[in-house]
Amino acid sequence: MTKFSQTLRAGSTALALVMALAVPAAAGEVIAAVAANFTEPAKEIATLFTQKTGHTVTYTFGPSGQFYTQITQGAPFEVFLSADASRPKKAIEEGYAVAGTDFTYAVGKLVLWSADPAKVDAKGEVLKSDLEHVAIADPKSAPYGAAAIEVMQKLGVYEALEPKLVTGKSITQAYEFAATGNAPVGFVAYSQVIGKEGGSSWMVPQDLYKPIKQDAVLLKTGAEDEAAKAYLDFLKSPEALEIIKKYGYVTE
């Protein structure tokens, strides 16, 4: 080998090393199951997360109880953003999630809402009127639905309203029932109506239902996925917390 060839080869090796150091780690994809009430903030967070890290997120939105069943049946979700704290903890206890990775990413607020701007009063007295229907999310699978039942029971109106309940499979469907007029009022997540023009609402006092602490957890399927871990870290970042607060959630 000539001296020139040796120099060229050494230079090529050095250049290759520099290029390797300059190229970021390969971008990954996160597969996440997300509570329906968190749809809009999750989309915003995903956009910012991709801009910051290069990783992408594929979301499936729906009721937390349904997701938990799917997780136990082998669904390929890597991250679970539940609408409660109990299911992520249960996922850890039953071996579906990584211990020590659960945390509260948001605390939700319940609202009684109507598309009719004159329907809901400032104290929720409309619940004591002769309503044709009241929309709620399925209390068995959606924590916001369970909170709605708790509110009606504490107000002493549950027995009268139970036959009139229109139950959506998720908080998204409960909102759709109220938005389309299929139910004159509905218990929905504050995040679904914050900033929306028109309609009327009553912010349900916190003492009428248990705090809706929404926890996230890393599932065993994502235990070795750096993108999944990065997503959960990003969910705690100041940028993500600002988005979460913008949609009316409380952060801890």
UniProtKB/TrEMBL annotation:
The source's domain of life comes to Bacteria
- SUPFAM superfamilies xref list: Periplasmic binding protein-like II
Sorted alphabetically, which keywords does the UniProt record give? Metal-binding, Molybdenum, Signal
Q: Which GO terms describe its molecular function?
A: metal ion binding; molybdate ion binding; tungstate binding
Q: Which residues form the signal peptide?
A: 1-27
Provide one Gene Ontology biological process annotation: molybdate ion transport
Give me the residues that bind molybdate, please.
Answer: 64, 171
Q: Does the keyword Nucleus apply?
A: no
Q: Which PANTHER family match?
A: MOLYBDATE-BINDING PERIPLASMIC PROTEIN, TUNGSTATE_MOLYBDATE_CHROMATE-BINDING PROTEIN MODA
The family annotation for this protein states: Belongs to the bacterial solute-binding protein ModA family.
**Binding partners and assembly:** The complex is composed of two ATP-binding proteins (ModC), two transmembrane proteins (ModB) and a solute-binding protein (ModA).
The record's listing under NCBIfam families reads: modA
Protein name as annotated: Molybdate transport system substrate-binding protein
Species in which this protein is naturally found: Rhodobacter viridis
